[in-house]
Design goal:
The complex is a heterotrimer of chains A (329), B (307) and C (324). Chain A is of the alpha/beta class and 329 residues long. Chain A contains 13 helices and 12 strands. Chain A has a single domain, classed as P-loop containing nucleotide triphosphate hydrolases (Rossmann fold, 3-Layer(aba) Sandwich), CATH 3.40.50.300. In chain A, helix 7 packs parallel to helix 8. The longest helix of chain A is centred in the middle third of the chain and has 18 residues. Chain A starts with 7 loop residues before the first strand and ends with a helix. By secondary structure, chain B is an all-alpha fold. Helices cover 69% and strands 0% of the residues of chain B. In chain B, 42% of the residues are buried. Chain C has 324 residues and is an alpha/beta fold. Chain C has one domain: Rossmann fold. Chain C has 12 helices and 12 strands. The longest helix of chain C is centred in the middle third of the chain and has 17 residues. At the B-C interface, helix 8 and helix 9 of B face helix 2, strand 6 and helix 4 of C.
C-alpha cells in the first residue's frame, strides 16, 4: 500500500437494484482504492458491475431503483455514501469528474460546446467570482489542452457539428477544465474508431499525467488497460477477482477468469483463437452461491460452489480471489 | 456444454408442451398486467359492464322499463329503496335504463372497432411499407383529409345526413375512426421496414405478405391493442355525444347520451336523471382507460435480457 | 487457389444528399475491385464511414449500385434484392452486427428458423421440427431454445441464432457484418471458433467485415483495408501483417491496443495516429488519405494513386509505396 492514504477507497461495496423479479444483487463486495496520481484500470465484460461501481462513487445510480449501497466509499477518509448534499456537491464539482462512453449522449445537443464548458466552470468553486471573459479564457484553454486545433471555432459549435472523436475530446475538456483530483473514464474510446480511440487515449493519458490527477479507467479491453494504467482490477459478476500492477497481471494472470479472458483476445501475432469462456454472466437475481465464476470455471471444485473464495496475496500488491491460489500459497 | 449452463432448470431441457408454454406466458402476462393495481380495477369495471349488459334482462329490477313503459304514479322519484337511482319523467327506473343502455354502447364500440381497426391497420401497413411510392401518397393524403376534420363534427355531419338510428351512428363513427389507426401504423411500419429483421427476411427471400403480416404487423400489435382498449371508452363517448343530440339510438330504447340530454331539462331539481347516466359514462371510459394502461404494461417489451 | 466465387468490378454506390438546393453525393463506395475465391475468408477491414458495410449491403442487394458489376458464380447480380431470383437469395446470406435488431422480437426462435426453411423448401413440413433441432445443434444450442424469444437468451446465443438462420438455406457465401463486435471477447472467441468450424465443414466462403485487425490476423486468408470508399491494400494475411505497406494500414496497426510485448513489436513503431476520417461527401482531391498521411508528397494531393502489385498477391494503392 502507499505511504499516504488513498484518495478514494472502496470497501466491501454491495449494490442491489430493485427489479420486478426481486433484488438484482449486482455488486458483491467490491474493494478498490486509487492513490494520488495513479492510473488504475477496471476491466471486465459487459454487465460485470464496473460502471455501477463507478456510478456509486458519484452517487449517480438510478434513483429509487437502487437499494441503498452497503459498504464504504471513502473520499479522503470521508464516506461518500453518508455525505450530505453539500459535501457531495463538493466532491462532484471539485473532487471527482467522469466521462462517459457515449459522448453524444453526454453533451446537450441544444447548447454550443462552449456554453457547456462555460457552465461547468461557472458552477464550480474555481469559477466563483471570475469574470465572464476569464471563464471563457479558461474554457478555450481547456479545449486547446485536449488537442483540438482552432478552439475559438469549436467553442461556438453545437455537438452535432463535431465528429465522435471531437465530442469525446470536449467531454474530456469539461472533465478537466476545473481542478479535480480523480477522473473516472467510462470506456471513453469504445464508441470510437481504433485510430481515433488511440488519439483520445493518448490525450487523456498526457493530460492526467500533466495535471497530476488520478485516473480510473473503466474498460472491457485488456489492451487498453495495459497501455494506459499502472494497476488493474479485473471484475467479474460484481466482484474484483484479481488485482495487480499492470505488468504483473499481464505477465502472470492468476485467476481462471483473467486467464480465460486473456486467451480469448485475438492476438496480432496470430496463432488462432482460444476456446473462450463458456456460458454468460450470471443472472443477478439469482447469482451462483460461493464463487460467482464457478459455473463457468474450467477448474471449479466442490468448495467453489459453497464458499466465497478467500483473497490471496501473491505479493507486490497482486491479489486474487480464488481457492486455487489459496492452496498454492 | 448443457451441464455448464447452470442457469437453466433441468426440467427445461426437454421441449415444453404447448399447454405448458401457454400457462407460462399467461402467468407472465398476468404478472405484468397486475403490477399496477389500477389495471385490475379497470378490468373489474369492464368485466362488470360487459356482464351487466349481457345479462341485462335478468339482473335489472324492472326489465320492462327499458322499452315503451309509462308509470306516472312513480314518475320523477328521487333515489329510494325501490328505485335505487330514481325514476325518469315518465316513471321508468333509471338503473334499469342505464344497464340496458350499456348494450347499445358496447355494441357500438365493438362494431366500430371491429370494422375500422382492420381497415386502418391494413392501409397503414401498406402505406408504411411502400413509403415514398404512389400508394403511400394516395392512402396517406386521404387519411389526412379525414384527420383534418374535427372527429365529432365529421360524425355529426354523417349521422345528420343519414337517418338517425344506432346503425347509422355506428357508420358515422366508423368512418371517422379508421384514419387514426392508419396514421399510427403508418409511422410504425415505415420505421420497421428499415429494421434489420425486416431486411433480413427480405434477403432470405420471404414474400411481401410474410414481411407485412408476419414480421411487421406483430410488432405493431401492442400499440394497436392498447389504443383499442382506450378507444372503446372514446367510441362510447362519441356515441353518447351523438345520442345526446338525438342522432343515435332512438327512444324508447335507452342510450346514455340521450338520457343525459333528456334529464338535463329537469336539472337541478331532478338531478338523478342526468347525474347517474353521466356517471355511468365516466365509469365506463375510466374503466377502459385503466384496462388500456394495463394492456400496454402487459405488452410492453421487458427490459433488456429480463424477458 | 480455386476459382472466384464473387468478383466485384469497379463497384460504386453513391447516395444523393440534398444540401441547399444542390444535390451532392455521398460516395460510400467509390470504385472497388475485389475478388473472393471459393472457400476463402476475406477480411474487409475499415473504420466507420469507410464503406465496408455498404459493399456488403450492395452485394446483398440492399442498395442498387451506381456503377460496376458484382459477379457471383458467373452471373452479374448488380440489382436490387426485389429483382433477384430466389435461388440467388438461397446461396447468398448475411449475418448482421446486432442480433438484437436483426431478429424479430415478436417471434420465437422456431419461427425465426422456420422462415428460410419454408421459403427455400429445404425440408417438408413434417420434418421441420427435426431440422430446426439439427440447426440449433450446429450452433451448439439446446433444442428447448426453440420456444424462447430472442430477447430471452443472451447476446451471444442470439447471434448464434442468426448464424443458424443464415445457414438454414445451405448458402455458399456468407457475409459476416461485424458479427461479434457487439459481444464480449470471451463470447466472441466461442462464436468465431464455431464460424470457422462451420466454414470448414460446409465449405463456405466468408466475406468478414470488421474493424478488428487482430481478429483478422487469426482467421482471414486475405485482408483488404478500406478507406473512404476505396480499397487501399490487399494481401494474403501472412504477408499483410509481415509487411504492411500503406501508411493507413500502418496507422491502423499502430493504434491497436495489444496485450503482450510480442504483439507490441509487430506494430509499426514510428507511426502515430493523427486526424480523422473526412466526410465522404467532401472527399479530398488526389489520394483521399493524404491529409492524414505521414509520408505525404506533392503528388498525393493532385493525383489519385492506382492499385499496383507490390509483391506477389500484395496490392497497394499509394504513391509512396510505388516509388520504393
Amino acid at each position: 500500500m502507499s505511504k499516504n492514504s488513498p484518495i478514494i477507497e472502496i470497501k466491501d461495496l454491495h449494490v442491489w437494484y430493485r427489479t420486478y423479479g426481486g433484488f438484482s444483487k449486482v455488486l458483491n463486495g467490491v474493494n478498490l482504492y486509487v492513490d494520488k496520481g495513479e492510473k488504475i484500470g477496471v476491466v471486465g465484460e459487459a454487465g460485470c458491475g464496473k460502471t455501477t461501481t463507478m456510478r456509486s462513487i458519484l452517487r449517480i445510480l438510478p434513483e429509487g431503483q437502487s437499494h441503498t449501497p452497503q459498504g464504504e466509499i471513502l473520499y479522503h477518509g470521508k464516506d461518500i455514501l453518508k455525505m450530505d448534499r453539500k459535501d457531495l456537491q463538493h466532491v462532484r464539482t471539485s473532487g471527482v469528474s467522469m466521462i462517459f462512453q457515449e459522448p453524444s449522449a453526454a453533451l446537450n445537443p441544444v447548447f454550443t460546446v462552449g456554453t457547456q464548458i462555460y457552465d461547468v466552470i461557472k458552477y464550480s468553486e474555481a469559477g466563483k467570482g471570475c469574470s465572464k471573459e476569464k471563464i471563457k479564457q479558461m474554457a478555450l484553454q481547456a479545449i486547446k489542452e485536449v488537442m483540438i486545433p482552432d478552439p475559438e471555432r469549436i467553442f461556438d459549435c453545437y455537438p452535432n457539428q463535431l465528429s465522435g472523436g471531437m465530442k469525446q475530446r470536449i467531454c474530456i475538456a469539461m472533465a478537466i477544465v476545473t481542478p479535480r483530483e480523480v477522473l473516472i473514464a467510462d470506456e471513453p474510446g469504445t464508441a470510437l474508431d481504433v485510430t481515433i480511440q488511440d488519439q483520445v487515449h493518448r490525450t487523456l493519458k498526457e493530460l492526467v499525467e500533466k495535471k497530476g490527477m488520478s485516473l480510473i479507467m473503466i474498460t472491457h479491453s485488456l489492451g487498453v488497460a495495459r497501455e494506459l494504467t499502472d494497476r488493474v482490477y479485473v471484475m467479474y459478476a460484481g466482484n474484483v477477482v484479481e488485482t495487480a500492477r499492470t505488468q504483473d497481471l499481464f505477465a502472470n494472470p492468476s485467476h481462471p477468469y483473467t486467464r480465460g479472458l486473456m486467451s480469448s483476445v485475438p492476438r496480432l501475432a496470430g496463432g488462432g483463437l482460444a476456446e473462450g469462456i463458456y456460458g454468460h454472466i450470471p443472472d443477478y437475481l439469482n447469482p451462483p452461491q460461493g464463487c460467482r465464476f464457478h459455473p463457468r470455471c474450467p477448474q471449479a471444485k466442490e468448495c467453489c460452489k459453497r464458499q466465497k473464495p478467500p483473497i490471496v496475496d501473491l505479493g507486490n500488491g497482486h491479489k486474487v480471489a480464488c481457492f486455487l491460489d489459496a492452496e498454492v500459497v | 456444454m448443457m451441464e455448464a449452463n447452470l442457469k437453466t432448470n433441468t426440467n427445461e431441457l426437454s421441449v415444453p408442451s404447448a399447454s405448458a408454454r401457454f400457462r407460462e406466458s399467461f402467468r407472465k402476462n398476468w404478472y405484468k398486467f397486475s403490477r399496477n393495481k389500477l389495471s385490475i380495477i379497470g378490468l373489474i369495471v369492464v368485466l362488470a359492464v360487459i356482464i351487466l349488459a349481457i345479462l341485462a334482462p335478468y339482473v335489472t329490477p324492472y326489465p320492462k322499463h327499458a322499452g315503451k313503459f309509462v308509470d306516472y304514479d312513480n314518475a320523477n322519484l328521487a333515489p329510494c329503496a325501490q328505485y335505487l337511482l330514481g325514476t325518469d319523467i315518465i316513471g321508468r327506473d333509471i338503473l334499469t335504463r342505464i344497464i340496458f343502455s350499456f348494450r347499445g354502447a358496447l355494441l357500438m364500440a365493438v362494431v366500430v372497432l371491429a370494422i375500422s381497426v382492420p381497415i386502418g391497420v391494413f392501409l397503414g401497413l401498406i402505406a408504411g411499407y411502400f413509403k415514398g411510392s404512389l400508394i403511400d401518397t394516395i392512402i396517406m393524403r386521404i387519411t389526412d383529409i379525414f384527420l383534418a376534420v374535427p372527429p365529432l363534427l365529421l360524425a355529426l355531419a354523417i349521422a345528420a345526413v343519414l337517418e338517425p338510428n344506432l346503425t347509422n351512428s355506428m357508420i358515422a363513427v366508423t368512418v371517422m375512426w379508421w384514419p387514426w389507426y392508419t396514421r399510427m401504423v403508418y409511422g410504425m411500419a415505415s420505421s420497421y421496414r428499415n429494421e434489420y429483421f425486416v431486411i433480413g427476411a427480405d434477403l432470405i427471400g420471404a414474400s411481401r405478405f410474410h414481411i407485412l403480416f408476419r414480421e411487421i404487423l406483430p410488432n405493431c400489435l401492442s400499440p394497436i391493442f392498447t389504443k383499442m382498449a382506450l378507444d372503446v371508452g372514446w367510441v362510447i363517448l362519441i356515441g353518447a355525444s351523438l345520442s345526446f343530440v338525438g342522432l343515435g339510438e332512438q327512444p324508447p330504447t335507452p342510450a346514455l347520451g340521450q338520457m343525459v340530454s333528456d334529464g338535463s331539462r329537469y336539472m337541478p331539481d331532478s338531478w338523478w336523471m342526468t347525474i347517474f347516466p353521466a356517471l355511468a359514462i365516466i365509469v365506463i371510459i375510466l374503466g377502459f382507460n385503466l384496462l388500456g394502461d394495463g394492456i400496454r404494461d402487459m405488452l410492453a417489451k421487458g427490459e433488456k435480457g429480463n424477458e | 487457389m480455386s476459382e472466384a466465387i464473387l468478383d466485384i468490378k469497379g463497384l460504386k454506390t453513391y447516395f444523393p444528399v440534398k444540401k441547399k438546393g444542390e444535390t451532392l453525393f455521398v460516395k460510400a463506395v467509390d470504385g472497388v475491385d475485389l475478388t473472393i475465391k471459393k472457400g476463402e475468408v476475406m477480411g474487409l477491414v475499415g473504420e466507420s464511414g469507410s464503406g465496408k458495410s455498404t459493399i456488403a449491403y450492395t452485394v446483398m442487394g440492399m442498395y442498387q449500385p451506381t456503377a460496376g458489376e458484382i459477379i457471383f458464380q458467373g452471373q452479374n447480380i448488380a440489382t436490387a434484392s426485389s429483382k433477384r431470383p430466389l435461388s440467388l437469395k438461397k446461396d447468398l446470406q448475411i449475418v448482421f452486427q446486432d442480433p438484437g435488431s436483426s431478429l424479430n422480437g415478436q417471434q420465437n426462435i422456431r419461427q425465426i428458423l422456420e422462415l428460410p426453411l419454408r421459403v427455400h423448401k429445404i425440408v417438408s413440413k413434417s420434418e421441420m421440427e427435426k431440422k430446426i433441432v439439427e440447426l440449433l445443434k450446429t450452433v451448439e444450442l439446446p433444442a428447448y431454445y426453440m420456444y424462447k424469444t430472442p430477447w430471452a437468451v443472451g447476446g451471444g446465443e442470439r447471434q448464434m441464432v442468426s448464424i443458424a438462420r443464415a445457414l438454414a438455406s445451405n448458402p455458399k457465401f456468407i457475409i459476416l457484418d461485424e458479427p461479434t463486435s457487439a459481444l464480449d471477447v470471451s463470447i466472441q472467441a466461442k462464436i468465431i471458433n464455431m464460424l470457422m468450424k462451420l466454414q470448414h465443414e460446409q465449405e463456405l466462403t466468408y466475406l468478414f467485415i470488421t474493424h478488428d485487425l487482430s481478429l483478422m490476423r487469426n482467421i482471414a486468408t486475405r485482408v483488404a483495408i478500406m478507406y473512404l470508399g476505396k480499397v487501399c491494400e490487399i494481401a494474403d494475411t501472412g504477408e499483410f501483417f509481415k509487411n504492411p505497406l500503406h501508411p493507413y494500414t500502418q496507422m491502423l496497426l499502430s493504434s491497436i491496443p495489444v496485450i503482450s510485448e510480442e504483439e507490441e513489436r509487430l506494430k509499426p513503431a514510428k507511426v502515430v495516429s493523427t486526424g480523422e476520417i473526412p466526410s465522404p461527401v467532401n472527399v479530398p482531391p488526389g489520394c483521399s488519405f493524404h491529409l492524414r498521411c505521414p509520408q505525404r508528397m506533392d503528388i498525393c494531393s493532385k493525383m489519385d494513386p492506382v492499385m499496383q502489385e507490390a509483391a506477389p498477391g500484395h496490392y497497394v494503392r499509394c504513391h509512396a509505396c510505388q516509388k520504393a
